[in-house]
Amino acid sequence: MMPWLDLALNPSAALREMEQMVGAAWRTTLANQALRSKGGFAQPLVVGTALAAWAVLKPLLPRPPTLVAGYSVGELAAFASAGVISVETAMGLATIRADWMDRSVRGQKSGLLSISGLAVRSVLEQFPRLHCAIVIDYDHAIFGALSNDLDQAQTGLADTSAICKTLAIDVASHTPLMADASEGFSAALLELPFQPPEFSIVLNSRAMVGRRVSELKTALGAQLCTTIDWAACMDVIAERGVHCILEIGPNSALASLWNRRHPTIPARSIEEFKNPQGAAMWVQSHA
After folding, report:
1. Which residues contact 73 (CB under 8 A, 6 or more apart)?
2. pTM above threshold 0.70
3. Where are the chain's structural domains?
4. Within 10 A of 129 (CB to CB), how many other CB atoms are there?
5. Consecutive 10-residue averages of pLDDT for the chain (287 residues)
6. How far is residue 189's CA from residue 97's CA, in Å, rounded to a whole number?
């Protein structure tokens, strides 16, 4: 995960804040499968590393981005990068969010299952106890449910052409099982000051661009128990006529999804470059 983050002589506020929450040895902790699937560790880690990378990258870019989108908990990083909330607020909200999600399914085992190669509608018709959490494409989505229901679906699809993969996440995020979490998290958001964004944000829960503070708060709270149509979010970005897409975070999963859906608009992940300067030069070449 972006090894150059550790080389900064003056670590960003995001990195310092994150390490206070998850520990300075977070890279070592990542090797523990049980711990890294826990929201209290994973969510601050995702938000913190993204914002730490953004702090380094932002001054290197030729101009601000046209718009920004965050995938799931990454929406907190998107809001902070656009100046809606502070880094410290984003990090605090990541912990509050994880806590409310854990509370919503306490005493019940739940999770997420990726199913590709089968139409989303067909999956839901065959396994009505599943909930569509994130739409990736017409034949690829992430489904959330109680663990027994996920296991039943995986067993039922074993002899089909569908490809199933259990995600290392122990809550059924973006499903009705998170209704209590959405309500609690939304209440926490109402107490916080939000600023108008410096650039547009594509909202997970609505698959549309948002700029008004009131709609930003509502959308951020709602996404916990609402299906995220990530395919539609990508389409909204493409419709804005952007020249390129840069994924700010580890791996290149989102960039790969983008390149399959919108191959004429190049996308890369900051993780593909040896340093943020290389990523900024690539963006400059497409500006």
Report:
1. 42, 43, 46, 47, 94, 97
2. yes
3. 3-104+175-229, 110-166
4. 13
5. 69 82 86 83 92 92 94 96 95 96 91 97 97 97 97 96 93 96 96 95 95 94 97 97 93 94 97 92 93
6. 10
Closest to 112 measured CA to CA, from 58, 178, 160: 178
CA atoms within 13 Å, Cβ hemisphere of 200: 12
Enter the tokens of residue 188.
């926490």
SS3 at position 43: helix
Rounded Cα gap, residues 210 and 101, in angstroms: 24
Pairing verdict, β 200-203 and 131-137: unpaired
Q: How far is it, in rounded angstroms, from Cα 276 to Cα 64?
A: 15
Backbone angles phi and psi of 163, in degrees to 5 = -110, 120
φ/ψ of 158, rounded to 5, equals: -60, -35
| Calpha distance 236→199 (Å, rounded) | 15
> How far is residue 254 from each of residues 49, 74, 105, 281, measured CA to CA in Å?
16, 11, 28, 20
Would you state the structure tokens that stand for residue 71, as one six-digit string? 């995938």
* CATH match of 3-104+175-229 with 3.40.190.10: no
Tell me whether the CATH fold assigned to 3-104+175-229 matches the one assigned to 110-166: no
Burial tier of 244 (Cβ tally within 10 Å: 0-12, 13-18, 19+):
middle
